[in-house]
Write a sequence for this structure.
C-alpha cells in the first residue's frame, strides 16, 4: 500500500487522506531535505506544491507527485486518481490527528468516561487511537464527512465507493 509524506503547503490534504484510511504523515517544517530523507527512510511518496523540489536531484527510490490544484478537495481527487486508490479507501480506520491505525473498542464500558454521555448512550461502535487516545464513533459527523467525500470524488468514483462508506 502506498504511503505518503505531505509537505507543509498541503497540510489539510494529510488529514483528508487519513480520514480515508491512508498513511499520510505531515512534515511541518517544510524543509526539503527532511522531507526527502523521510520519503527515503520510510518509503513514502512526496506530495507537494513546492516548486523548489523541481530543482533538487531526488534519490532514485524517492517518488514525488506534484499537486496541481491549490484546493484540498481537488488535491485529494488528484491523489486518488494518480495512485488508483479508489478500491483501497477505508474510511475511519486511521487517526486523523496522528496517523495511527485505529483499534476497535470491544468493550464499550472502557470508553464510558471518555466520550460525551449522549454519544455513549446512542452509539455502539467505537474505535480508539492506541497512540493519542482519541475516540472515534460513527455518527452524524461521519455521515456528513462521507457525503462530502462522495461529492469530492464525483459521480463515477463515488459509485464505486458507496458501499464502503455506508
Ligand atoms: Zn491518534
Amino acid at each position: 500500500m502506498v504511503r505518503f509524506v505531505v509537505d507543509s503547503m498541503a497540510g489539510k490534504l494529510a488529514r483528508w487522506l487519513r480520514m480515508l484510511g491512508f498513511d499520510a504523515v505531515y512534515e511541518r517544517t517544510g524543509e526539503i531535505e527532511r522531507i526527502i530523507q523521510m520519503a527515503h527512510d520510510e518509503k513514502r511518496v512526496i506530495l507537494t506544491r513546492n516548486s523548489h523540489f523541481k530543482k533538487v536531484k531526488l534519490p532514485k527510490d524517492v517518488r514525488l507527485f506534484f499537486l496541481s490544484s491549490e484546493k484540498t478537495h481537488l488535491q485529494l481527487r488528484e491523489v486518488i486518481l494518480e495512485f488508483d486508490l479508489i478500491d483501497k479507501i477505508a474510511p475511519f480506520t486511521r487517526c486523523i490527528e496522528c496517523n495511527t491505525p485505529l483499534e476497535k473498542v470491544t468493550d464499550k464500558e472502557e470508553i464510558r468516561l471518555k466520550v460525551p454521555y449522549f454519544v455513549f448512550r446512542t452509539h455502539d461502535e467505537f474505535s480508539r487511537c492506541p497512540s493519542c487516545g482519541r475516540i472515534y464513533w460513527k455518527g452524524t459527523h461521519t455521515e456528513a464527512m462521507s457525503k462530502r467525500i462522495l461529492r469530492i470524488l464525483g459521480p463515477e468514483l463515488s459509485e464505486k465507493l458507496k458501499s464502503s462508506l455506508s
Observations:
- The chain has a mean pLDDT of 89.
- The pocket of zinc ion is lined by residues 95, 97-98, 100, 129, 131-132, 134 (CB under 6 Å).
- The chain is about 35% helix and 15% strand.
- The first helix runs from residue 11 to 19.
